[in-house]
Amino acid sequence: MKIRIPLLFVLSLFMLTSCDNILECAFNKRPEIHDKTFKDGIIGVYYYEEVTTEINNEPRDNDYGYNYDFYGELPNGLQMVTNYRTVSFEGTPEVAGTFNFTLYLYVDPPLSYDYDSEQYEDSLCSESTSKDFTITIY
User: Is the dihedral of CA 132, 93, 49, 108 positive or negative?
Assistant: First the structure.
């Protein structure tokens, strides 16, 4: 009797969810913002750092749409610039301090290549992620 309960639970789990989604999550197929330690900057000196992103374990990750947002504070004179799977922080800082912010990544499923423009089945474990960063300016 004790063996049947876990077996029934697992079978019902597969019936209520698709096997594809469970397998995709087992392979950790989700968006990722790569780790990055930002170098220190100096007031009045041009600053440039970039963060790269991807979808883990997804051979078609170049086909997805990548959208970014951030919450927090950047020093006056720096701006966030997005270029597909790369986010750069660049400019000439005007103030000193330690600036903390959170970068958010949202991905859209790719469009199919046939003429009816149907979307691929969304098989990611998650469609978004975020990571905290710090920039220090002297």
Answer: positive
DSSP 35: P
d(CA 68, CA 106): 6
Tokens linked to 110: 């790719």
Angle between helices 4-16 and 19-26 (to 10 degrees): 100
Predicted TM-score (pTM) of the model is 0.73
Length of the chain as a residue count: 138
Mean pLDDT (whole number) for 67-92: 95
Q: How far is CA 112 from the centre of its chain?
A: 22
Is the CB of residue 87 less than 8 Å from the CB of residue 130? no
**Higher per-residue pLDDT: 85 or 5:** 85
Structure tokens at 37: 């330690």
**pLDDT (average), residues 103-123:** 65
